[in-house]
Amino acid sequence: MSKIPLERVDTNRWRIPQRYNPEMRVPGIVYADDELLEMIIGDNALQQVANVATLPGIVGHSLGMPDIHWGYGFPVGGVAATHAEDGVVSPGGIGFDINCGVRLISTELVHAQVRGKVDKLADELFNNLPSGVGGAGMRQLSQTEMREVMVRGADWAIEEGYGLPGDLETTEERGCLAGANPDAVSSNAVQRGKKQLGSLGSGNHFCEVQIIDHIYDAEAASALGIGQPGQVVITIHCGSRGFNEQYRIPVNDI
Q1: Of residues 1 and 227, more confidently modeled
Q2: Residue 243 annotated as lining a ligand binding site
Q3: Is 38 flagged in the annotation as binding?
Q4: What is the distance between the alpha carbons of residues 120 and 181, in angstroms, rounded to a whole number?
Q5: Is 207 a known ligand-binding residue?
Q6: Of 23, 105, 181, 248, which has the fewest CB atoms closer than 10 Å, so is most exposed?
Q7: Counting beta carbons within 10 angstroms of the beta carbon of residue 226, is it exposed (0 to 12), middle (13 to 18) or buried (19 or more)?
Q8: How far apart are CA 219 and CA 227, in angstroms?
């Protein structure tokens, strides 16, 4: 068990009191049920919640969400707010590629159709989804295309045949935030990024084939394209690869 003292606030909240470390400026709060808490304790992420609570200017609490796990400095799944006037600014608290996306793709397949074919399916996914540090995507973009990606986001991908128009309706901000300025991005970042689109990278990024075990809310499940237990779905978790890593270097040096 963790040596960090935990006080139960309610069914799914736990407090790390400031007495644990005199340098903590605020308490820590972790959102987890009993089962999740066991995994969180084993990962030592609670120590990072306490560490974040020592940052200058932090207000309220150092928070840990249910998906919390060990990060570079902050825990991944950690949340902290600092005062605008005298609070610390940390561009890489949990790492530098922190605007990752997670996407659920529903399929018309059911478990019985893929049972016995898992190894072949895994091989096909591995062959078609480049992964690992430095892994390049299936398509290398031109300078012009890279600028289009930066400005248009998911709309560009759909126009190129990598998605359906309806996907935009179920994507945050329709897959594109306004105000992007490609001129603010270094040529080094563009060079790294234009050959990595469509790849997974490393870390905890993944493409995972999953089976629906139980449907708790039929209406919510239907909105996600989930219709029955046993349905095959795919979850993808990825970030912006070397493009963002290269972009952050001059920012981090300020």
Answers
A1: 227
A2: no
A3: no
A4: 43
A5: yes
A6: 181
A7: middle
A8: 9
Confirm or deny that 205 is annotated as ligand binding: yes
Q: Does 127 carry a binding-site annotation?
A: no
Report d(CA 168, CA 158) in Å as an integer: 9
Look at residues 53, 82, 111 and tell me which one is the last residue of a structural domain: 82
Look at the pTM and tell me if it is higher than 0.90. no
> Is 124 annotated to bind ligand?
no
Contacts of 219 (CB under 8 A, 6+ apart): none
pLDDT tens digits, 32-91: 999 999 989 988 899 999 999 999 999 999 999 999 988 888 998 999 999 999 999 887
* 188 has binding-site annotation: no
The confidence score (pLDDT) of residue 87 equals: 92
The predicted pLDDT at position 144 comes to: 92
Exposure string over 233-251, b if 16+ CB within 10 A, otherwise e: beeeebbbbbbbbbbbeee
Instruction: Clarify whether residues 18 and 74 are in a common domain.
Output: yes
Among 82, 117, 143, residue at a domain's last position:
82
User: How many domains does the chain fold into?
Assistant: 2
If asked whether residues 128 and 69 sit together in one domain, one would say no
